[in-house]
Design brief:
alpha+beta, single chain, 5 strands
Length: about 170
């Protein structure tokens, strides 16, 4: 009996260890952009506007600016905010999941690291949605499909201009 109990406890510890170490990689996506910071932002903004499904830009924030204004030196970080009325409406209409409005608008972070490369980071909307039941899972599954389109770049198209501020 002691062997079974200790095996069970060790199994739980192992699963908790794996979950703790793997969760960030599952919950968030990070990829290197083939472009610089501003061009990456501009191309993602253009892709959002061209995706359809009710998507529109709702803002461009610079969270690094506050850190810089505080006297600290930090690498650039820009955050694109976009919202789709097609996907937000079912969640905002349902009292049982309206608290998930905290996840709106959809955010995509574009930032530089010390290696000099530009990166794109976003939440794994499909996985996150499945944690909140069938309605949210279905909606966020569609969001995840569209997010994949946001970061597909067509090198044959000229670089658009970055859209400053809100949409």
């Amino acid at each position: 009996m002691l062997k079974i109990l200790s095996g069970f406890v060790l199994g739980l510890i192992f699963v908790a260890f794996l979950g703790y170490n793997m969760a960030p990689g599952l919950m968030f996506h990070e990829r290197v952009s083939p472009y610089g910071l501003e061009e990456t932002v501009a191309r993602i903004q253009q892709n959002i506007e061209e995706t359809g499904n009710g998507w529109s830009l709702s803002g461009l924030r610079n969270p690094a600016k506050a850190v810089q204004n505080d006297g600290s030196n930090t690498l650039p970080v820009l955050m694109i905010e976009a919202c789709s009325t097609k996907y937000s409406a079912p969640i905002l209409k349902d009292d049982s999941v309206r608290y998930l409005s905290i996840l709106m608008p959809c955010k995509i972070s574009i930032y530089q690291k010390n290696d000099g490369k530009t990166y794109i980071g976003n939440m794994n909307a499909g996985l996150m949605g499945r944690m909140f039941g069938p309605l949210v899972g279905e909606v966020m599954g569609h969001v995840a499909d569209d997010q994949k389109k946001f970061v597909l770049f067509d090198a044959s198209k000229p670089a658009p201009k970055m859209i400053e501020g809100g949409g």
